[in-house]
Amino acid sequence: MIAEGREPSTVAFIAVDWGTTSARAYAVDAGGRTTAMRQAPLGVQQLKGADFAHALDRLLGDWAALPVPRFAAGMIGSRQGWVEAPYVDCPARLDTLARHVTWTPGRELAIVPGLIYRDEQGVPDVMRGEETQLAGMLGDAKGGDSFVAVMPGTHSKWVCVEGGFVTEFQTYMTGEAFAVMLEHSILGRLAARDAGDVRPGPAFSAGVAHGGTALSLLHSMFGARTLALTGDLAASDVADWLSGCLIGNEIAAARRWISQRGAAAGEVRVIGGNALVARYTSALSSQGVRAHPGPEDAVVRGLIHLGRQAGLL
Amino acid sequence: MIAEGREPSTVAFIAVDWGTTSARAYAVDAGGRTTAMRQAPLGVQQLKGADFAHALDRLLGDWAALPVPRFAAGMIGSRQGWVEAPYVDCPARLDTLARHVTWTPGRELAIVPGLIYRDEQGVPDVMRGEETQLAGMLGDAKGGDSFVAVMPGTHSKWVCVEGGFVTEFQTYMTGEAFAVMLEHSILGRLAARDAGDVRPGPAFSAGVAHGGTALSLLHSMFGARTLALTGDLAASDVADWLSGCLIGNEIAAARRWISQRGAAAGEVRVIGGNALVARYTSALSSQGVRAHPGPEDAVVRGLIHLGRQAGLL
Questions:
Q1: Is B259 helix (H, G, I), strand (E, B) or coil?
Q2: With 90 as the cut, is the pLDDT of residue A264 above it?
Q3: A218 touches B at CB < 8 Å
Q4: What is the pTM of this model?
């Protein structure tokens, strides 16, 4: 969809995916086609409240001079971002999120709101950015407007979408717990750190099986220590096993949650980068769930979709 | 039981509780009474394979010259310790652990073995030190020789003891996960760090209720972030809520595990320091379980008990 290097001579709209660790800008023509992309390590965390207008100019380069609307999703709309775009309560209709857009004080940028959902106990859950990915999947042939989606990552989101509404969702700290426990707890002590992202192997699958059936992660993840201690797990496999154990726990719990909701959990849309989609597809299939990879450019699609609703494109 | 400062003129036996972060030595007379205690920050982690014989001399001071047996429990018998005391398989009879004592090469110290248990999936679990605490509780009026015990801490142990045998046990990384997630994950970002150890309050109880009913800790602990974000939880209560959430998860899972084992989980012995025993007693009672605090000096009792079996006292 993106023609890298092509001169964006007919830019009508700039879509910005502005998250915690990085920012990406996409030039979009009047037909809704993405013609070029620029990225910079100008995430909200790096900027720490610095001059966001200046950061946007750096990200856009010569696009900054173009007299076209800029529309962003992600942590840039959080309290730590440029301006707080208040959360919209669930159930929330994805198609009408554009009505709740927040502009920066100088109208440099319009920002999509995040979503908030409170469970039966009143405990809130929040998302920022994922709602735009979901909007980008509406009408997609495979999913229609009702589907269950998982967006794996630092904080995985499991979402029930019904008739174009986000009815409920849950966050799982899977990616962050993996990184933090491997780096700072006893679990990493016997682990060899590999370079690069490898395909999930047998140690990953064993971890998924263990994590998917155990009663508590607090116990099951200790296996990454004891299996290594007894020589049942090679040092080079510890990280992969732990990754499987956490992902297996997440999927088993999310499936129970979905079925309590009365939704069908036999098919799940998986939206994310290739490496994570491969891991989740493998883990889901081992638990009898069919995974459909979502579009990789779901955020841009969502920004274009919502931008049209907002009259920005 | 310990008469601090009294001169141990009739020392017949020295019991050593030698763990990861500290070491304690107890002078015991011929009647099995503890007459004095000495401690030093000479844990296995601090020593990092240094001269253990020298460290023992430093810990013992003038007791080092006494011609009496020294008997130790804890991580000093691990691979990172002085000499590895091989694990004894479960079911393991606590009374006969003394048969498997390992001596240091110069016979400076005898060490109690740890225990290993493999679950149905073949995943091992291990303990070192806790088996000696359990031996110290045998015959205790409240528990008899059959009981369920929890030893909370960095790595909580839940143990089924039947007729003096450790039949099965499970480790929960509750204390370590709490410390690591609060310090290194997003959960600590909105938390105010308090000084000191406070009694568990309403935030702790709310965390217990949430963690005890949730399907996955990976999701439930995210509440420490979102409740603070929405102002439902004060910054000063975040740590307490998270502690409750983790302990609630541990107890709920351990209770299901115990009932799957066919053991009665209505009463549990809780062995540990005062602050942790208070937290676990409160959390257990909110889940309908009666907690009996175990003896605080369970390790010394166990070393004396096993020392007699081994003919060292």
A1: helix
A2: no
A3: yes
A4: 0.92
Interchain contact, A116 vs B230, CB within 8 Å: yes
Burial class (CB in 10 A: 0-12, 13-18, 19+), B4: exposed
Q: Is B300 on the interface with A (CB under 8 A)?
A: no
Mutate to test the interface with A, among B154, B218, B222, B249 (most CBs of A within 10 A): B218
- Taking residues A254-258, report their average pLDDT: 94
In terms of C-beta density within 10 A (0-12 exposed, 13-18 middle, 19 or more buried), how is residue B152 classed? buried
Contact A155 B256 (CB under 8 A): no
Within chain B, strands assigned E span: 11-18, 23-29, 34-40, 70-73, 88-89, 92-93, 102-103, 110-111, 115-118, 124-127, 147-151, 156-162, 165-172, 267-270, 290-293
Q: Do A171 and B123 touch (CB under 8 A)?
A: no
CB atoms within 10 A of CB B50: 10
Amino acid at position A78, single letter: S
* pLDDT band, residue B9 (cuts 50/70/90): low
Residue B243 Cα, gap to closest chain A Cα (Å): 13
- What burial letters (b/e) apply to A153-164, b meaning 16+ CB within 10 Å? bbbbbbbbbeeb
Question: Omega into A91 within 30° of 0, i.e. cis?
Answer: yes
A122:B232 CB<8 A? yes
Please name the residue that has the structure tokens 């007299």.
Answer: A67
- Predicted local confidence at residue B142, as pLDDT: 57
Instruction: Write down the H helix ranges in B2-161.
Output: 44-47, 52-60, 130-135
In 3D space, the residue among B39, B94, B27 whose CA is nearest the CA of residue B66 turns out to be B27
Cβ-proximal residues to B147 (8 Å cutoff; 6+ apart), any chain: B137, B161, B267, B269
Q: How far apart are CA B70 and CA B58, in angstroms?
A: 14
Percent helix, percent strand, percent coil in chain A, to nearest 5: 40, 20, 40
Mean pLDDT of chain B: 92
Residue B99 has pLDDT above 80, yes or no: yes
Task: Collect all residues with Cβ–Cβ distance below 8 Å to B123 and sequence separation of at least 6.
Answer: A210, A223, A226, A227, A232
Residue pLDDT, tens place only, A186-210: 999 889 876 445 678 999 999 999 9
CB-based contact (8 Å) between A84 and chain B? Answer: no
Residue A285 has a CB neighbour count (10 Å cut-off) of 12
**Any idea which residue has 């996955």 for tokens?**
B216
Query: Which amino acid is present at B116?
Result: I
Residue B54 CA to chain centroid, in angstroms?
26
For A190-212, b/e burial (b = at least 16 CB within 10 A) is bbeeeeeeeebeebbbbbbbbbb
Per-residue confidence (pLDDT) for residue B1, from 0 to 100: 43
Tell me the C-alpha distance between B181 and A106, whole Å. 38
